[in-house]
Amino acid sequence: MKAIGYFRAPAPGSKSESLAAQNKAFLEFCDRLGYDVEVTFVETVGGNGGGQRPGFRQLVDYLRRPEKGFLLVVARSLEGLGGDPKESVRRYFQLEGLGVQVTFLSGDGDPLDEIVGAWAGQSGSAKLSERVRAAMRKKAVRGEVLGRPPYGYRVGNRRRLELVPEEAVVVRHIYRLYLQEGLGIRLIAGRLNEEGQRTRRGGNWSMVSIRDILRNRVYLGTYARFGVRVPGSHPALVTPDDFRAVQDRLVARRNNYSQRQPSPFLLAGLVQCGHCQNKMIGVSRRQSWRRRSGGESKASYRYYQCGSRTNQSMCDYHTQRAQVLEEHVRDAIAGSNGDVVHPEAGNEEAVLAEWQHEATRGQGRLRRLDRRLDEHLSAAANGRITREQFHKLSVATAAERLSQEDALGEIDRRMQEQADASKRRRGRERALARLLDGWETLPMAEKQSLLRELVARVVVRDEGLQVLLRP
């Protein structure tokens, strides 16, 4: 087996081992156990000095090579993987997710045991966090509102929930439509939108917002936060019998659908309905039928459908077969069909602002994934999940974060190119050539990235489409 060394340069004035000492220990480790030394990656102080990719990112790129073979990554210790404990744990699982084994020079202990033990025994920020949570639990016990009040209520005296009359009427209307008129969630959203009802933010109702209201126990008059439930803390909007009936129907409808593994759509986020200007979303349908001979046939259909129709029961039934639409877009950017391709109007500042907005959203996704990994660690430390579950969940979360880090790195690269018009033109030419040459062979993620570099949006109407390119 081949071994890869990964080491961090000590900060100035620290007592950590020098790079020379770490490398010497790595070579002795490989010699003692019979490993072949493959390569060594070093994380310098500052992580990205001189414009070079940080050592860990270089290591990830190396491990993604298809011909890498069987590899072992060797670090000084768990702490040596990152700049802080959380980063070290995250990077450990990211490496595991890339299909390599990780071991440490500091000992022969089980890395999972070390990770869980370090989490269970950590102090400082963890204790501060627990003190904050304890204080918030005390407020929850008193029924005091923490965070934004749910639709139908506002924060009143003594920080208790009190009714917002015009919103309370809508909540009762939603429950009545679901229970008494038997409407589904999408049809309820459509009914409210047709009636001119608006959400608290003044937008249209969607399936998600209706589902959240139907599932929320707050409408029973019970306030629940941090595992604390306070019955009768505020006026109820539905009866317990009606609430139970709603939950039973929701469960029954959910159990009627089989679990499906969603597959990505190439144009996700780019396609816009030209009739209502809302996004079009990818939808998959499976159909089966019995032939005259008695045999059964099955088929899967993928298409893009107006999101207003799907989630809000608004607009008309505008759909496009996924393969047909994607081929039209490919031909349009290649200039080989009659569809009009327009450059997106705007200026460099507007484009940069758009990328900055996307970067901000990406940072939010990173924070959510970090919180999810914290939850897995806490569950393992408290014995709520097994080692196998902990490992599987953590590897999946860390891999998702690594993918999001890649996306943010790509956004940063595009922002730097966007600042220079000549670089932008060269980048577009390279992206277009790579996309067209590899349309049938490129991985989905890379094709999506190249399309987003070239295309601002695809406007679809029943009579045709327009592809608007980035400037």
Tell me about this structure.
The protein is of the alpha/beta class and 471 residues long. It folds into four domains: 2-109, 3-Layer(aba) Sandwich (Rossmann fold); 142-255, Putative Large Serine Recombinase, Chain B, Domain 2 (Hect, E3 ligase catalytic domain fold, Alpha-Beta Complex), CATH 3.90.1750; 271-318, no CATH class; 341-469, no CATH class. It is built from 15 helices and 15 strands. It has helices at 19-33, 55-63, 85-97, 111-121, 125-141, 165-179, 185-194, 207-215, 240-255, 307-312, 322-334, 348-381, 387-418, 421-437, 444-454, and strands at residues 2-8, 36-43, 71-75, 101-104, 153-155, 161-163, 223-225, 228-230, 271-273, 280-290, 296-306, 319-321, 341-343, 455-461, 464-469. The strands form five sheets. Strands 2-1-3-4 form a four-stranded parallel beta sheet, sandwiched between helices. Strands 9-14-15-13 form a four-stranded mixed beta sheet. Helix 7 (185-194) crosses helix 8 (207-215) and helix 14 (421-437) packs across helix 15 (444-454). The protein is globular. The model is unreliable at 47-52 (pLDDT under 50).
